[in-house]
Amino acid sequence: MNTQLRRAAVAVAATAMAVSLAACGSAKEAGGNGSGGDDEKKDGPLTIGLLLPEDQTARYENFDKPLIEKRIKELCSDCEVSYVNAKEDASTQQQQMNSMITKKVDAIILDAVDAKSIAGSVTKADEAGIPVVAYDRLAEGPISAYTSFDNEQVGKVQGTALLEELGDKAEDGQIVMMNGSPTDPNAAMFKKGAKSVLDGKVKVGKSYDTTGWKPEEANKNMSGAIASLGKGNIVGVYSANDGMAGGIITALKSAGVDPLPPVTGQDAELAGVQRIVSGDQFMTVYKPFQPEAYAAAEMAVALARGEKPETETTVDSATTKDVPATLIEPIAVTVENLKDTVVKDGLYSVEEICTAKYAKACEKAGLK
């Protein structure tokens, strides 16, 4: 089992993912620099624009940014990374994209705040001959390549883990679904994957789409769900990520819910991992950041050089068909396999997880 988990942490999904959205273009037909080619190969220093969506979720500044920068430097020692963060503001990100185009960067790695509203800026980049790699979220417009996790599979992993933990309680109980931001296409895929597992197996008492993935919004929504359903009538909570799980658990505790129902999560944030150790949060989805970040860096450098990126499948967005893509497999993490996943892979050390507050819980969990 441990060997399988280790392999999964770095495995690229070999099966094609078809995003069930109407398509009205093609990455190969999009024009501009498109999906790369041999006509205009570039030598010498390159500038890669890196646009991340927000700085509230720990992963972006702590993992994605440094890993992408590291891999780009390994591939191209004299390349420069021009980094900006939109801080969850779609209009700011549009301005940042336009600035990258004005600066004539050689390629852009884009993690979109709003996948739909950024399409115009992606089109401008394409018209300027600047390829855009959609990172983590599939932005609309003539994207040249895409890397993320198999997002429906993420939802399936969360839903399956929750059902297994509920056992017989699933038959007569009800859960709350706290989905991600309605402007994030990944959130819709997480939700679709989760519902494909949960529908018909457990009653969903309340379901929310959470503005901006904000923990405070999740906290407010959860408080409303408790008031509506009754604190003793909620057997589990599907939370699309760890940040929202924190807000949900705070609401449950404030309402005097004891014992806490199982709450899911995603991203393996340190706070989420610590809640799993303490028993407050049931599970998280570990998405190994390195293979995703490295794939984005490799795609961007190849495209900037006028080469075709190495990918294993294609995906469709609402505007573009057959976008070359690399998809990474997610992993369910509970207290039982924490040591063999996030610790073994070096995401966090035992010392980072097991602060004084969690020392006893860590000892009980076998984290030493």
TrEMBL record:
<dbReference type="InterPro" id="IPR028082">
    <property type="entry name" value="Peripla_BP_I"/>
</dbReference>
<protein>
    <submittedName>
        <fullName>D-xylose transport system substrate-binding protein</fullName>
    </submittedName>
</protein>
<dbReference type="InterPro" id="IPR050555">
    <property type="entry name" value="Bact_Solute-Bind_Prot2"/>
</dbReference>
<dbReference type="Pfam" id="PF13407">
    <property type="entry name" value="Peripla_BP_4"/>
</dbReference>
<dbReference type="GO" id="GO:0030288">
    <property type="term" value="C:outer membrane-bounded periplasmic space"/>
</dbReference>
<feature type="signal peptide">
    <location>
        <begin position="1"/>
        <end position="22"/>
    </location>
</feature>
<dbReference type="GO" id="GO:0030246">
    <property type="term" value="F:carbohydrate binding"/>
</dbReference>
<feature type="domain" description="Periplasmic binding protein">
    <location>
        <begin position="48"/>
        <end position="308"/>
    </location>
</feature>
<dbReference type="InterPro" id="IPR025997">
    <property type="entry name" value="SBP_2_dom"/>
</dbReference>
<keyword id="KW-0732">Signal</keyword>
